Amino acid sequence: MKAQTYVIIAIIFMILVAVFAVTNVNPVMVTYFFWEIESPLILVILFSVLMGGVITAAVGMIRMFKMQREIKQLQKENTKLKKEMDIVDLHGPEDESIEASSDLENT
To answer: How many CB atoms are located within 10 Å of the residue 39 CB?
Structure first.
């Protein structure tokens, strides 16, 4: 349901941007670093929205890859700790202080 909501919101946003862009068709001067070009405002608006989407997606993917890497690292650490717990359970407590503290709790 959550994904469907995002799709519907994205479609509504795209329609609003398209209507806004279509109503602004006058030519404008656009300065790119070292040169100026006259371009219809509709192209400037659509290009800006497209670049905003591409940049947002790139940042989101970078964050996703970092999280996946962290998840893998934590899963390895979790597996290692589970193996250590299994070894302790099979061989019993290795430290006599653990046995002593459990004896005190039982009394």
So the answer is: 14
d(CA 12, CA 44): 20
Rounded Cα distance between 39 and 81, Å, is: 62
How many residues would you count in the chain?
107
Structure tokens at 41: 């405002």
Dist. CA 99–CA 105, nearest whole Å? 10
Residue type, 31: T
| pLDDT tens for each residue of 85-94 | 888 777 765 5
DSSP state of 32: E
Query: What is the 8-class DSSP label of residue 40?
Result: E
pLDDT digits (tens, 9 = 90+) for 68-86: 999 999 999 999 999 988 8
Q: Which of 74, 93, 71 is nearest to 82 (CA)?
A: 74
